[in-house]
Design brief:
Strand order of the largest sheet: 9-10-11-16-15-14-12-13
Helix content: 25-40%
Number of strands: 22
Low-confidence stretches: 1-6
Strand content: 15-25%
Oligomer: single chain
Number of helices: 20
Mean pLDDT: 88
Structural class: alpha+beta
Length: 596
């Protein structure tokens, strides 16, 4: 990407959006040609194109892929082979996706120019917001951003999350300072690897600047709620620091101590008393507006699995606008929200045609074909639809071809076309394929769920007990949220000469541990390191509960012939039924094993 595009801001950024979307088909054709010229000689493409850069040959010969197809190439590069296996430019890092393969995070190849593309998207956000909300250049933004633990591949390529990559890059560290992006958080606090120390310093800085803050946010809604929970536990210490003008000794990171010494330049007992009075209130309803009274909106992803946090955010923010600014993944950044003040339920994203080459697997006018194409099923090339030929109202699965070496790659997102901006389609995010449970960055699918339960239920066998049925639920009414499993257990007393040993709390605690140890790398990191997911809970229900659950769904119109116990419960009526039959509740007593 041309480096000058990093400079698109203000009116120039808005004009660029119009230019790109008006010529979406030409831009897409140009992007695919660029990719083929850059990567046509790679081992992967040569296998299909024999050195040709012809677009028609690509459409006809290059197959639709999943991570399983690309993994052998990615693994070879991670082990030291040349990037030319899949891309013509050097792979500078592997980005850890929240999705997993065989329990480990998926590694997405990334080249230097990808940072230019991500920065391009970031630079569009404030010009769009400025169309709808004025005066955003007259104060500060309290955006709570964090880095995560890093790894390296066997040959030394950094492996990290896409956000960690961005915050550690020169694109962020050496960014041009402007009045629309004046952040309360010092870069040193954002880059601190200790999430508690980072959170403490970022909140402290935000409180010091409370009368200047115009917008509050985090990448995900769950992260912002975690910050509120942290503030509830630590506001007394934060007030003490402001009152004394000194930093709590718990902050040991030298960079954090250095940057905060400037922010806490002198004691401010008046400010400390203001904050104490607000935080001492019995109810924290509207706490964000009370602490930061000039706030105009909340910025966080509230689509997809994050929609479950909307009621909590509305409670704490006194129903300030909730803004999802952009649509992105580890594989690629896709687009932006051109109507950011839309109700969260109506958020749509406009795909920017210069990000990658987009294609789509049709899933029907009402998503009826959603179950027809499983993630591992082969999809013929002739089924794919290009960007400008998707149909209004129809559902699609997103497929991308990137500069970094993913070809006709199934992202796994299901989208619905809601309209067009010029020639570029606008999509509503529907869901991730095959994700059953999600609280934060974790994405647990039904296969992983089944595997973990199969391991744990073996612990019941010595007690002649069997797991009759189970389902699950992502409990997010408290922070951090956690996984809840409803278990119906049958103990065969006839196998015992005397009264059987009951399945007690200790056994169920071991079952909790067994489930968590079998869940994937990302879940275990969220639990053990990030602390963004709480201890797993097993709720034991009375005998006959799952029959009652089936009766409920049949009364609501389900077919007795086709009924399957849902592995994740989203119905309030079903949750009420299950909770009314709970006879024991057990939490995991320790964190699962997690090794960076």
């Amino acid at each position: 990407m041309d480096g000058k595009k990093l400079e698109y801001k203000g009116e120039a950024a808005l004009k660029e959006i119009e230019k790109l979307t008006e010529g979406a088909d030409e831009v897409q054709e140009s992007i695919l040609k660029e990719i083929l010229i850059q990567n046509g000689q790679t081992e992967y493409l040569s296998k299909y194109l024999k050195g040709s850069n012809d677009v028609k040959e690509f459409m006809y010969r290059v197959p639709v892929t999943t991570y399983k197809d690309m993994f052998p190439y990615i693994q070879r590069i991670a082990n030291g082979e040349d990037s030319s296996l899949i891309t013509g430019h050097p792979i500078t890092e592997m980005l850890c996706s929240s999705g997993t393969s065989a329990g480990e995070p998926k590694l997405m190849p990334s080249i230097n120019e990808d940072l230019d593309r991500r920065t391009f998207i970031y630079n569009l956000i404030m010009p769009i917001m400025n169309k709808y909300i004025s005066g955003l250049d007259e104060g500060k933004a309290m955006l709570l951003n964090f880095v995560k633990a890093e790894m390296s591949t066997p040959c030394g390529i950094p492996a990290r999350t896409v956000l960690t990559s961005y915050y550690k890059s020169k694109h962020f560290k050496c960014r041009t300072r402007d009045s629309f992006n004046d952040f309360t958080s010092p870069d040193q606090a954002i880059l601190c690897k200790d999430s508690d120390q980072s959170m403490y310093c970022q909140l402290l800085s935000g409180l010091v600047h409370r009368h200047q803050v115009l917008r509050i946010g985090a990448v995900f809604a769950s992260a912002l709620l975690r910050a509120i929970s942290f503030l509830e536990r630590n506001w007394v210490c934060l007030c003490n620091d402001i009152r004394s003008g000194g930093l709590d000794p718990m902050i040991t990171d030298p960079e954090c101590r250095s940057c905060m010494s400037t922010i806490l330049s002198s004691p401010n007992p008046t400010l400390a008393d203001e904050i104490q009075e607000i935080c001492s209130r019995q109810s924290w309803k509207g706490i964000l507006c009370l602490l930061w009274p000039k706030t105009k909106y909340i910025e966080a992803v509230v689509t997809g699995s994050m929609a479950q946090y909307i009621p909590s955010l509305e409670y704490y923010s006194d129903k300030l606008p909730l803004v999802s600014t952009m649509y992105a993944s580890s594989e690629c950044y896709f687009g932006v929200n051109l109507k950011p003040l839309s109700d969260p339920a109506n958020v749509v994203f406009t795909l920017m045609p210069n990000m990658c080459y987009f294609e789509f697997i049709p899933l029907g006018e009402n998503g009826t074909l959603f179950m027809e194409f499983d993630e591992e099923d082969e999809v013929s090339n002739d089924k794919l639809v290009d960007l400008v030929h998707v149909r209004h109202g129809c559902y699609y699965e997103l497929v991308v071809t990137t500069f970094a070496g993913l070809y006709r790659y199934r992202i796994g997102d299901v989208l619905q076309v809601t309209g067009f901006h010029n020639r570029a389609p606008q999509f509503r995010f529907i869901c991730r394929r095959n994700v059953v449970l999600s609280v934060d960055n974790d994405k647990t699918n039904e296969e992983d769920l089944h595997k973990s339960i199969s391991t744990a239920k073996k612990l019941l066998e010595p007690y002649n007990a069997i797991l009759v049925e189970y389902t699950s639920y992502a409990e997010t009414s408290s922070v951090p949220g956690h996984y809840v499993f409803y278990w119906e257990i049958l103990q065969d007393e006839s196998a015992f000469k005397h009264k059987p040993t009951p399945v007690d709390a200790e056994v169920l605690q071991e079952c909790c541990i067994a489930v968590e140890e079998e869940l994937d790398y990302t879940y275990r990191r969220c639990r053990a390191h990030d602390k963004s997911v709480g201890p797993l809970e097993i709720r034991v229900v009375e005998s006959g509960t799952f029959e009652a659950l089936m009766d409920l769904f049949i009364r609501q119109g389900g077919s007795i012939n086709q009924y399957k116990t849902p592995r994740c419960i989203k119905s309030n009526a079903a949750l009420m039924l299950l909770n009314s039959h709970v006879k024991a509740s057990i939490f995991s007593p320790r964190d699962p094993t997690w090794i960076p």
